[in-house]
Amino acid sequence: MKPPVCALCGRRFPSSEGRLVKFSNYQPLPERMMGHPVGAVWFCERHVGVAERLSGRTSTAALAAMNLRHPFGALLRLLRSGRPPN
Ligand SMILES: [Zn+2]
To answer: What is the pLDDT of residues 13-25, one digit of tens each?
Structure first.
């Protein structure tokens, strides 16, 4: 399982302050398999509401829609990652 980092704003948060949202493409991991399940995405408490409203879509479609509504999200993630744009 990935650590809790908001997929929209890139903020790291204690898991009590956000939630793992399961989208329509969610696929649980097979038993005893390590890793992060497809379609399960962490969101901080500020963004979990909008993410849950879009949980009927695939995680890719939902994130694309959220990035359109929150155009600064991509910039924030970039600034927090400390990596130059590619
Ligand atoms: Zn967030």
So the answer is: 998 999 999 999 9
pLDDT in tens, 31-49: 999 999 999 999 999 999 9
Report pTM: 0.81
Tell me how far the alpha carbon of residue 35 lies from the centroid of ligand 1, in angstroms. 22
CA of 45 to the centre of ligand 1 (A): 7
Q: Which residues contact 80 (CB under 8 A, 6 or more apart)?
A: 10, 11
Is the CB of residue 45 less than 8 Å from the CB of residue 4? no
Q: Domain extents for the chain?
A: 15-81
